[in-house]
Design brief:
single chain, about 110 residues, alpha+beta, 5 helices, 6 strands, about 25% strand, YdhG-like domain-containing protein, YdhG-like
């Protein structure tokens, strides 16, 4: 995680990255966290999900498996086939949804 934080120059982006890490780590405490494709990835032992702080949004990448299962819940955030985009505001991160997707993906 420190390696990813070092790539961010905006202090707000660092706060958002730390918050996303806290949200995901709360439900995946045993996951190995590593940089993959320039994103923060969570592996337990398979890849579970990824996130990255972009210029205009927070990108959450849960792989393609949970997309259909959470179709209604993710509709406001879905961009493309497997990318969820959240506003760059800590209070707008759908924490419960991120956690539900991560746990579901771990178990399926």
């Amino acid at each position: 995680m420190d390696e990813y934080l070092a790539t961010l120059t905006d202090p707000k982006d660092k706060i958002l990255a730390k918050r996303m890490h806290q949200i995901i780590s709360a439900v995946l405490p045993d996951a190995e966290v590593r940089l993959s494709y320039g994103l923060v990835g969570y592996f337990q032992p398979k890849q579970v999900c990824f996130f990255g702080i972009n210029k205009q949004h927070i990108g959450f990448y849960p792989t393609n498996k949970p997309i259909e299962h959470f179709e209604k819940e993710i509709a406001p955030y879905l961009s493309g086939k497997t990318t969820l985009k959240f506003p760059k505001n800590e209070g707008d991160i759908p924490e419960k949804l991120v956690q539900e997707i991560a746990v579901w993906n771990l178990n399926h």
